[in-house]
Design brief:
This protein has one domain: MetI-like fold (Orthogonal Bundle), CATH 1.10.3720. Helix content is 75%, strand content 1%. The protein is built from twelve helices and two strands. Helix 3 runs antiparallel to helix 9 and helix 4 packs across helix 6.
Length: 283
């Protein structure tokens, strides 16, 4: 039986492998080639070497968008995971209506990013009008915190579900042993529960990190990078470079930025996975 399964394994792997090659490997290879070209379409690409990358690294708007993206990612990762884990701990207690609360907190994740962006744009602009502050189009500080609030509101419920699954897998015997030994609830939380759910923390930090760096549609809908590109994240900067300007050189510049962005996200994600996995406890 085992030999038959091993022989048939490639048959089950093949569809996914083909889809991965067609949907990712080939487009990535083509995009990597185009990052060294001037082009308006794939068929008229002209090789120009590393000139696109020189422009990308020297473009001050790309550097500003990187700094803004890092500032956004750090704060959003901390807040999302902190609130999601807190909610998960509360909703794994013997409380009435926990299923209703889980559903309510998860629902924002089902709404599209563009829709969320416009909803929060209206809400935040109304609030800014009431307190007599400049609107989002003229208020970079409000734009930054607006993006943070939007991201938290959308992602906390999803991460909460992952943390709940992790907390429910903590063996009851460990909790009971800690209680018998006289451990307080805080000691049980920090000495037993958190170490035992490090695998869930790894997943949630990875997802929030990649989602924060790749954020595009919410950024486009909420602030559009205004005022004066001060709230423009890296994905939106690449979009504006590639699509918002005419001329074959801008396509190449945008493609070079996209490759840099992809490599950067991969590197940071691998570093985070290595750092958090080293803290995981084998159950």
């Amino acid at each position: 039986m085992e030999k038959a399964l091993k022989k048939s394994a490639p048959i089950f792997v093949l569809p996914t492998l083909v889809a991965f090659i067609i949907g990712f490997i080939i487009p990535f290879g083509q995009g990597l080639y185009l990052s060294f070209c001037k082009f308006t379409t794939v068929s008229n690409a002209k090789w120009v070497g590393i000139g696109n990358y020189k422009y990308a690294f020297s473009d001050p708007s790309f550097g500003r968008s990187f700094i803004f993206t890092v500032m956004f990612a750090v704060v959003s990762i901390v807040l999302i995971n902190l609130f999601a884990f807190t909610l998960a701990v509360l909703l794994t207690q013997n409380l009435k209506g926990t299923n209703i609360f889980r559903t309510v907190f998860f629902m924002p994740n089902l709404i599209g990013g563009i829709v969320l962006g416009y909803i929060w744009q209206i809400l935040i602009n109304c609030l800014l009008t009431i307190i007599k502050e400049p609107l989002l189009a003229l208020n970079s500080k409000a734009g930054y915190w607006g993006l943070i609030i939007l991201m938290c509101w959308q992602q906390i419920g999803y991460m909460m579900i992952i943390y709940i699954a992790g907390l429910q897998n903590v063996p009851d015997s460990l909790i009971e042993a800690a209680s018998i030994d006289g451990a307080t609830k805080w000691q049980t939380l920090f000495k037993i529960k958190i170490p035992m759910v490090m695998s869930s923390i790894t997943v949630c930090v990875f997802l929030t990190l990649t989602n924060s760096f790749k954020l595009f549609d919410q950024n486009l809908a909420l602030t559009g990078g205004d005022p004066n590109h001060s709230t423009e994240m890296m994905a939106l900067n690449i979009y504006q470079t590639f699509y918002a300007r005419s001329g074959n050189q801008w396509k190449g510049y945008g493609q070079a930025k996209a490759v840099i962005f992809c490599v950067l996200v991969i590197f940071i994600s691998l570093f985070q996975l290595k750092a958090t996995r080293s803290k995981e406890v084998q159950q």
